[in-house]
Design brief:
alpha+beta, about 35% helix, four-stranded antiparallel β-sheet, GTP Cyclohydrolase I, domain 2
């Protein structure tokens, strides 16, 4: 399986369980690995035979702008669902983290994996 990746995507969003987190946007960081359906793009050299990275980023930005999530787990699962549904990816792994959320912690988060890796 060929895999595309997007590394260190940073987005400002409202996320969290505390009242202050619902008022003030936080920066989250995403690292994504997305399985491709085949080897069509490497043979054709055509963007239509792969997944457009910029469209993935746009979909994620829209989702996180339109919805408030309390938990990183729920946000990660929603992102995975969008990628698999909209882009027909057979497999996805998403790491989603809050940056410097606690004293002495550089980042914390979860990794969500969905689908089947061929």
């Amino acid at each position: 399986m060929d895999i595309i990746f997007i590394s260190e995507l940073k987005i400002e969003t409202l996320i969290g369980i505390y009242e202050w987190e619902r008022q003030k946007p936080q920066t989250i960081q995403l690292d994504l690995e997305i399985g491709l359906r085949g080897e069509h793009a490497m043979k054709s050299d055509n963007i239509g035979d792969t997944i457009d990275y910029s469209k993935i980023v746009g979909s994620i930005e829209r989702l996180l702008k339109e919805q408030h999530f309390s938990l990183l787990e729920k946000a990660g699962a929603a992102i995975a669902e969008v990628i698999m549904r909209e882009f027909k990816a057979p497999w996805v792994r998403i790491s989603i983290a809050k940056l410097a959320p606690l004293r002495n912690v550089k980042r914390l988060g979860v990794t969500i994996e969905r689908g089947k890796r061929a």
